[in-house]
Write a structure and sequence with these properties.
This is Sphingoid long-chain base transporter RSB1. With 303 residues, the protein is mainly α. It has 11 helices and 2 strands. The protein has a two-stranded antiparallel sheet with strand order 1-2.
């Protein structure tokens, strides 16, 4: 494709002036769903989007198979999250290969890629609840049911806020209006999510430190290590999103795809296989609640 477009960063046309990234090798299509600039801040890499689609498709098959095999219903949100990743990266493939200016592709990839970790985090919250029931509720600061539903609700609220902010950013860009308010909405949702997951990590650390002897006796050391590593990786991804949004549109974190690849894609793609190798259905059990015998032992130990 010939370089017929205006220079990157600034485009003029008539009396209007478009500020943002415009790919000089990809002329502005001017369609009804096209923003005047590429909202990503760059033209997305098709190779990265395709690689992500393939990897998450493989992980989806592996996790779905294990959820069915071990009848781990409490972990069924994990393959749902992976399905969201697949749809998001397919939309990103379309942005990269078909039309990077298309607002629909941008919103779809953002919605599904941002929402996917909510389902992955729900699976992580469920794992902690199952561990508390297995290792002993006396070691936890909060009951497992409270932990599960509080953090799922917190993630849901945070993500709805993020999606609303991202959609408004797209609309503002299309209308050539100031997106600052929309970016602040997105920032608020991310800030709350970082706070929420941070509190979850604190509760997890306190529980595991207090139950460390039971972890050794139960033979769950490797599983707990994998669980903690996956949790930290998902948290790292959320912190990146917060820093990116706080920097504002046009900052380095949002306009250089290397940061997206290493701090959004990579943490998630490393976290998911950890919980495939050490699957909670095989390592902890098929249900969050402890079997009757374990519950009786827990009550006796308290007495």
């Amino acid at each position: 494709m010939s370089a017929t477009g205006p220079p990157p960063g600034v485009t003029t046309g008539g009396s209007s002036r478009r500020v943002g990234y415009v790919d000089p090798n990809w002329p502005f299509p001017g369609g009804p769903n096209d923003a005047p600039v590429i909202i990503y801040g760059y033209t997305p890499s098709f190779a990265l989007a395709l690689l992500a689609t393939i990897l998450f498709s493989l992980y989806f098959v592996v996790h779905l198979f294990q959820v069915v095999r071990h009848r781990t219903t409490y972990f069924c949100t994990f393959p749902i999250g992976l399905a969201f990743e697949i749809v998001g990266y397919i939309a990103r493939c379309l942005s990269a290969k078909v039309n990077p200016y298309n607002l629909i592709y941008f919103i779809l990839q953002y919605f599904f890629i941002v929402t996917a970790p909510v389902f992955l985090a729900a699976g992580i919250y469920a794992i902690l609840s199952a561990l508390i029931n297995r290792l002993g509720r006396r070691y936890a600061l909060l009951p497992p049911r409270v932990i599960l539903w509080f953090f799922i609700a917190s993630d849901t609220i945070a993500t709805v806020t993020q999606i609303a902010g991202a959609a408004l950013i797209g609309v503002k860009q299309k209308r050539r209006e100031d997106p600052t308010v929309a970016n602040n909405i997105l920032l608020g949702g991310l800030a709350y999510q970082v706070f929420s997951i941070g509190m979850f990590i604190i509760l997890t650390v306190v529980f595991l430190v207090r139950a460390r002897r039971r972890v050794r006796e139960s033979g769950l050391g490797l599983f707990v290590t994998a669980f903690c590593a996956a949790t930290v990786l998902i948290y790292l991804r959320t912190v990146f999103r917060l820093a990116e949004t706080a920097e504002g549109l046009g900052g380095d974190l949002s306009t250089k795809e290397v940061y997206f690849g290493t701090l959004e894609f990579l943490p998630v793609v490393l976290a998911v296989p950890l919980l495939a190798v050490w699957h909670p259905g095989r390592c902890v059990g098929s249900k969050i609640s402890a079997p009757k015998e374990e519950a009786i032992m827990e009550l006796n130990s308290r007495g």
